[in-house]
Amino acid sequence: MSDELATPRPFSEHRQAIEARFDPATTAVIVVDMINEFLEDGGLMVLESGRALYGPIQRLVNAAHAAGSRVIWLRDEHDDVTDPEFRKRIVHCLKGTWGTQVVDALRPGPDDVIMPKHTYSGFFRTPLHATLQQFGVRTLIITGVVTNICVRSTTHDAFFLGYDVLVPEACVGATSEREQASSLYDIDTHYGAVVELEWVLQQLTRTEEA
Fold first, then answer.
1. Distance spanning both ends of the chain, measured CA to CA
2. pTM (2 decimals)?
3. Spatial separation of the C-alpha atoms in residues 160 and 94, rounded to whole Å
4. Which member of 64, 113, 126, 161 has the greatest number of CB atoms within 10 A?
5. Is the confidence at residue 8, as pLDDT, over 90?
């Protein structure tokens, strides 16, 4: 009996690798929930460690702009206190409030799309998929907070809809180190490819120079 048959691989290792190469012309950067409610003093559900993402995400956004990739900013927004999400979470990100706005430290470009989302996934009951299809997007680079909830849910749905998904580790933050490691492992084995930010920037810069 061969060693492979004698020692089965762990369940999650039965996988195909997603090709990490991408064409900036058919790629979009998705920035998830980098908003006041979750990051700035005065927000109702602040993840202070998420502020460390400001620099890496802005570097990626700037490179995407220069390379001609689309950038879409998703921001959590709920119509009123009867939203079904509030069965599990405190009332937050009510429509029209300061909390729903992208933090001042980040700078969307004039041609970027800023789109409200109404639950964890950016695809659920939003025009995100239709917008990406209109732009001819096939690859998504997903960033933001939090890795184990909204980033992960958006990544799942992106994969189910047929997109190739890249997640730069330096551009996502979770509610704990354990959740970061667990979620990135699951994303990398089931839904996309976890990659280095510097590699992504190199691909975008190479295209710009060409």
1. 52
2. 0.90
3. 29
4. 64
5. no
pLDDT in tens, 74-112: 999 999 999 999 999 999 999 999 999 999 999 999 999
pLDDT at 1: 43
d(CA 101, CA 104): 9
- DSSP assignment of 116-160: EESSSSTTTTSSHHHHHHHHT--EEEEEEE-IIIIIHHHHHHHHH
Please name the fold of domain 22-209.
Answer: Rossmann fold (3.40.50)
> In angstroms, rounded to a whole number, what is the distance separating the alpha carbons of residues 44 and 47?
10
Say how far apart CA 84 and CA 100 lie, in whole Å: 18
Residue labelled with tokens 């921001």: 75
> Which residues are known catalytic residues?
33, 117, 150
Please give the pLDDT value at position 21: 75
- Which residues does residue 29 pair with via DSSP β-bridges, in sequence order? 71, 141
d(CA 135, CA 70): 8
Of residues 198, 90, 180, the one with CA closest to residue 144: 180
